[in-house]
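Checklist before submission:
- one chain only
- standard amino acids only
- sequence pasted in full

Submission:
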Amino acid sequence: MTATSNTSNLRGTSPVAVLIQPGSNPEIIVNAIKAEFPDLVVIEEQGESKGVFVKRRARKLGWIQALGQLATMIVSKFGKRFTSRRSDEILREYGADSRRDPSLRRVQVASANAPDFASVIGELRPAVLFLVSCRMLTAQTLAAIPCPVLNFHAGINPQYRGLQGGYWSRVMKDEENFGATVHLVDAGVDTGDILYQTRMRPSPRDTMHTYPLLQTAAGTGIAVAAVRDALAGDLKPFKIVAPSRQWYHPPIWTWLWNGLTRGIW
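Returned file contents:
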């Protein structure tokens, strides 16, 4: 089946739909799920502009924090070009594939909270929707999805909800909780009941540029297991009693301080 960019060409139904924003890390999960469920459909939403991101973050945390986080994101994006060797090692170690498979059926939408996404879900009628690296779904959007909605999170919940869970677990001297979580999706930020977790140990060579890749590559097994359970009607969600905190990108001064004084980049 060739890729498609509009809903008019959708045919039939699919047991699995995966919602992503374009990127190599989400493709790792897509390829892992495809290996067991080859008739999946990938729904790709447009990424959010940096301007919208900064304004939204400023409303919540203030302009200083928002601009500091933006600076870290820019530096991080530039720094990724120097981590290709370590990235290749991670992919080989876990047998992960980050390439975009052009043979998969793909549908583009403006946003998961836009009307075109609701139309796609209505036509696909998936048995499970799996989210990877996409924007938060509103309560209204969630209520309109008639199947289990699961999310892959590069962090251990509830301690490291939000962004950069691997980085913050290291900063907090809590590397035992460096890992990934698959959970049910609710209206909160990574607050849904947990389905699976996996932990791994980062290499001294890993940095904020490679932590998410490591967590994703090492977490493909729990992603596939959760989809398998959902299709079998055998999901077993549970809660963990632990301090719950939402994290964000570190502002540039925090990132530099931890890097220079503790070697945590």
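Reviewer check: Residues 63-79 form the longest helix (17 residues).
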